[in-house]
């Protein structure tokens, strides 16, 4: 049974990815600061296919210790989905110094350390492995939330660089969703902005966490074994680029 790490596992895209990965036969290590959400998953799936890891990725000590501690119990792990992230949806002028540090840490620094620590260990096996990062169209076309957009643009750059750094054994790709329905972020966006997102989409089936999870799991698996360093948009055809 292949093992897969999913961060931000308790809700939204992360939760949908956990569900789909387990359905496809993976053992999932789910990490999140939401202990209650992880407990729901643990009780639903059991220890045979799911391991909960309470982790706050705004804490650098947690970030630096996360992968090393996993490898004290797991000899090898097949894949890593870097999904945990923050979104505030506000002007750059409204950010405090603490919030700037926090979003840079959760949305970018965590990915740097988790990715390199994972790849360093798995490259020694000289066998195919996979990292999937979660960015956003905000990282490609910009965002009114400058810090969010900047971190997601950096995730795309990190993905492309690490595709080279971790070759030939660890593939690194990134999923870039547009507005996702049925998430906490969706509820924070003003109605007029949601209407504008919808207007720009040429496909009208609302994007939901499960739709993004399908793309994540496609990239994780062997079907995309010839692809690395790629940005895969999930945006209903909006923002042609």
UniProtKB/TrEMBL annotation:
Protein name in the entry: Dehydrogenase
One Pfam family, short name: adh_short_C2
Gene3D superfamilies: NAD(P)-binding Rossmann-like Domain
Keyword presence, Glycosyltransferase: no
Organism: Pseudomonas azotoformans
Record key words, sorted: Oxidoreductase
Annotated CDD domains: SDR_c (cd05233)
Top-level taxon of origin: Bacteria
GO biological process: fatty acid biosynthetic process
GO molecular function, one term: quinone binding
Family: Belongs to the short-chain dehydrogenases/reductases (SDR) family.
